[in-house]
Specification:
The complex is a heterodimer of chains A (about 325) and B (about 325).
Chain A: H1 2-33, H2 38-42, H3 49-58, H4 65-77, H5 91-126, H6 131-145, H7 148-162, H8 178-204, H9 207-214, H10 219-247, H11 251-256, H12 262-272, H13 275-303, H14 305-312
Helix pairs in contact in A: 1-4, 1-13, 5-6, 5-8, 5-10, 5-13, 6-8, 7-8, 8-10, 9-10, 10-13, 12-13, 13-14
Chain B: E1 4-17, E2 20-33, E3 37-41, H1 48-55, E4 64-73, E5 76-77, H2 83-89, E6 94-97, H3 101-104, H4 111-122, H5 127-140, H6 146-149, H7 159-171, E7 177-181, H8 189-206, E8 209-214, H9 217-223, E9 226-231, E10 234-240, H10 241-246, H11 251-258, H12 298-302, E11 308-309, E12 315-316
Parallel strand pairs in B: 3-8, 3-9, 6-7, 7-8
Antiparallel strand pairs in B: 1-2, 1-4, 4-5, 9-10, 10-12, 11-12
The chains are: A mainly alpha (about 325), B alpha/beta (about 325).
Amino acid sequence: MDFLLLKFILNRLWQAVVVLVGVTLIVFVMVNVAPGDPVAVMMEKKADAATIERIRQQMGLNDPLYVQYWTFLKNSFSGDFGNSYFQKLPVRALLARGFAVTGSIAVGVLLFSIAVGILMGILAAVFRGRSADRLIMLVSTLGMALPSFWLAIILQLVFGLWLKVLPISGLKSFKAYILPSVALGMIYAASLARLTRTNMLDALNQDYVRTARSKGAGETAVVVVHAFRNAAIPILTYLGTLMKSILGGSVLVETVFAINGLGRLLVDGIMKRDIPVIQGCTIYIAAVFVLMNLVIDLVYGLIDPRIRAAKES
Amino acid sequence: MNTNLLDVKNLCTYFYTDEGVVYALDGVSFSVKKGETLGIVGESGSGKSVAALSVMRLVQTPPGKIVSGEVLMNGENLLKLSGKEMRAVRGGKIAMIFQEPMTALNPVYTIGSQIMESPRIHRGLSRRQARRVAIEMLEKVGIPLPEKRVDDYPHQLSGGMRQRAMIAIALCCNPELLICDEPTTALDVTIQAQILELINDLKKEMNTSVLMITHDLGVVAQVSENVLVMYASKVMEYGGVKEVFTDPCHPYTKALLESMPAVESGRERLHVIEGMVPSLSNRPEGCLFHPRCERRMEICKTLRPELIMAPAGRWVRCWLYASGPRTLGSIERG
C-alpha cells in the first residue's frame, strides 16, 4: 500500500518536472521573440553600440539559442534566474523577499476565508431557507461582487482613518495583516460560503446522515463529523485554486496597502522589461500551481478512502 | 397489565409542501409486544417508512411534521421528550436498519468507527472498549475475519456484508426495538434470506422486538407474528399474520395477496390491482381504496370507514364489515 502511494507520488513528481520544463521553454521563447534588445533596455539607452555588444557577449546572448536555453534551463532548476537589471540583486533574493510577504498574506487570506467562508456555508446549509440562510447568501453575493482594491480602500477608510484601530499600510505588526487579508479574502470567503452551502446541503440529505441521527449522534457531530467530511472534497479543490491565485500576489491590493509582494515585483518587472525578474516570477508561479495540484491530490486521498483505493489500483 | 413495548396511537404526520399538505400518515395506531415482530406492508407511498421515521422522530422538519398522536415506549411518550432525551433513545433503546446499505453507511469512515459511535454515545465506552464491541458485533453478524474487517471502508464490502455491518451498528447497544425499513429490498434473493434469518436469530438471542417494514409479503410471512396493512396513509387491516394471509378481510389485502406470484397456483397471469395509489395531497372522498376496489358500494364513495373489529377477530377499515362494529373510536380518527 505504501509502496503504491510512493509510486503515485513519484509519478506525479515526474509529471511536475515535465510541466516545468515546458514552462521554461515557453518563457524562454516568448522573451526571445519579444521585440527589443534586453541589453539596450538594461543600459537605458546610455551605452554605445560597442559596449552593448561587449555586454551581449558577456551575457552569452550571442550564443546559439539552444545553448542559451540549456543554460537557462540548468540555472532555472538550481533556482538561479540571474540578476535583476535594475535592482542589481539576484532574482532569487527578490523572489524570496516577495514570497515572504505574499506567503504570509496568503496564510492570512486562507485563514480568513476558511474561518468565515466555511463556517457561514455550514450555517446557511443547516438553516436552509430561513432568514440566517438568506442573509448569509445576500452578503456572499455582495462579497463576490465587490472589487478587492475598492474593498481595501473602504476598509482603510473605516478601520484605519475613522476607527483608528488598524494600520492602513505596510506590514510592520501582526495587526497590519488583517486588512489586506480581509480585502483579498472577501471574494474567496464569499465563494467558499456558497460552495460549502451547496455541498453541505447535498451531504445533509444523504442516507448516512439519517443513519448517524438514528444512532443518537448529536446535531454538531452529524453536521461536522458525518456531513462535512463528505462535503470537503470540492471545498478542498477550491482551496487549492485559492492558494494558487493568492500565491501569485495581487498588484492592486499590494499597491493600495503599500506592500512589496510578488504581484508588484512581477508587474514592475514587466513594466521595466526586467527580463530575469519576469522569467523568475513566471517560473515561480508555474511551480506553485504544479505543487499545489500535487498537494491537493494527495490530501484528497487522506479525506476519501475511495479515491485512495482508486489511485492505488 | 400492559405488556406492550411500543404503543403508537393515532399518529398523524403531514408534509407541508408548495403543492399542498401531504397526509403521509393519518391516524395510524399499532402496538408491538416485547419480543414480537410486527410487519408493516404496503405499496410505495403508503406511508410505512414515514411511520418508522415518525417513531424515531427522524422525519425531516420542515417540511414534515408529526401533527398529533402518541408514541408510547414502555408507557413514556417519545413525542414529548426533549431533543437530548430523544437522542438517548435513538440508537440506545430503538435502533434502525435502512434499505440501502450502499448509501446508509458513511463512505469516508471505517465500518469499525461507525459501529463504535453508538456504544461511545450511549454506553460511554472508551475508544478501545468500543472497538472490542465492534469486533464482537461483526463476529455476531457473521462477517468473517472481524479483526481485519473492522478497519475496512464500506466500499470494500459487498452489499450483503454492508447490510450485516448495518445490523451490527443497530444492535450494538442492545436496543429494545429494532426498526427495519426494507432491509432486504436492495439485496440478492439468496442474501435476502440470510439477512432475514440473521435478524430473526439475533432478535431471539437478544429478545428484541422488531418492526419490519416492507412491501414484500413473503418477508412479512417469514418473520412476523402480526401484520399491519397500510394503504395511502391509513391502516387497512391489522391482525395476526397467519389469519390475515390465509383469510384476508379487506379487499385490498386480498388483492395484494392475489398479486403475489405462487408456484403451486398455476395461474398464468398475476392479478393486477387496477389504478394507482392516490396522491396523498389530493386524496379521494370516502374510502381511500374505493377507486380501485372490486367490491365498492355506494357508501364507499362518500363516507370514510372507521377501523373496526371484524367478526374474524381483527381490525379492518372497510364498509363490508360495518354491521355491528366495535370501533377503535377513541384511538382512531376517521
